[in-house]
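Re: folding output
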Amino acid sequence: MTRGSATHLKFQDGKEETVITEQFLPRRLDAVFGDQFIFQTASLRQRIKAKLVLLAPLPCDVPPFAKSVVYLSSLSGPISSSVYRLPGAETHFFRLYIFARQADVKVTLPPLFRGVVNVKNHDGFCPRGRVRYCRAFRDRMRCGLIRLDSCALENDDEVYIHAEGSMELRLMPLSRNDGCENIGSRVGRHVRRIFGTT
C-alpha cells in the first residue's frame, strides 16, 4: 500500500521536474499475488526527484512481507532517488528499478543497505568508469553486504539501474533523517488513532 504526492515544477531553462514523495506500508507476502508494480513514474523529458519512505508494519502484521516495488523512468531527464527506511522497518525490503535513457542517475540508499545492485547500460553491459560509489558504499561492498550484478535473496534489497549517463550510488550518513522522524511520528499517531490506543 502506498501513499504520497507528486509536484511538477518548471525551471527557467525550460526543463520540468517531477518531485515525488511516496510512503510504502509493507504488505504481507501471502496477500500479494504476482509481482505487481506498486508505484511507477515515467516521463519523457522531465527530471525526476523521488523521496521514497519505507514505513514500519502495522502492529497486527507479522513478517514475511512482500518487497515494495518502485519503477522510475525518464527518456531524457536525470533521475535522483533517495530511499529512507524508518525505525521498525528493518524487515520491509524494496526493489527499485530506474531507467534513464539519456541522462544521469543519482541514488541515495539507507545507511544500512544490504542487498544487490545491478547497473547496466541499455545494451546490457556494465558501464565501467561511469559509475561512482561513495566510500561507505565501497566499504559495504568489501564486507559482502552489497553485491554487484548478483541474484537477490528474499531478505535483500534490490536496485536495478539501466542508464546511459553517469551514475552515482551513495549511502546516507547514519545520523541523517531529513525530516523522516516527523513522517514516522505522524504515521504512528494515525495508527494509534485507528486502533484506539494512546
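--- second protein (sequence, then structure) ---
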Amino acid sequence: MHIEAKRCGVQFSPPSIVLVYENKETNKVRKRIIPVRDFSKYSDYCMAAEKLKNHPRHRDYLEGVSLSQLEKLHIILRDHLQGFTLEHSLASCHLDPNEDLNKLGDEELARKKGQMNELFEKNRRHKDDLDFVYDVEVDFGKISPQKCSWDDESDDGF
C-alpha cells in the first residue's frame, strides 16, 4: 500500500488524530480519523505518540508523519484536556528567541531543546552539500566603543 500523508491535525471530541492522505495506487485523497485511546491530561505525550506510530493498524498510514509532529499533536490534545486554549498550545510549540528558558520546567525545557536541535539539523551544512564552503570568514564590521563615565576617571596610573 503506497500512502503519502498530506495533512495531519487533531480533533478534540473525541480525542483523535486526523490524517489526510493520498493513496498512490488509486490517486484518491482520503481522510482517516485515528482515535487516541487511554490518553489523559497526565499522560506522557512522547510515549503516546510512539505507541500510535508503531501501532500495527496505523503504521502504514503514519509512516510519512514524523514522530515530532505526532508529539506536537499529542501535546495539543493534552493541553486541551488540561483546559488550555488552542492558541496557548500552539504558542508553546514555537520557539521564541526572547523567552527565558531558565523559567521552564524540565519537560518543557526538554521539548524546547529538541525543537532547537531539530532546527539546527535542518539548517546545518554538511560536507556533501553543493553549497558547502570550508573555513568561511565573515567580517562583522567595526563597532566604535562607547564612552562611559567610569572610563574617564583614572586610578593613579592604572
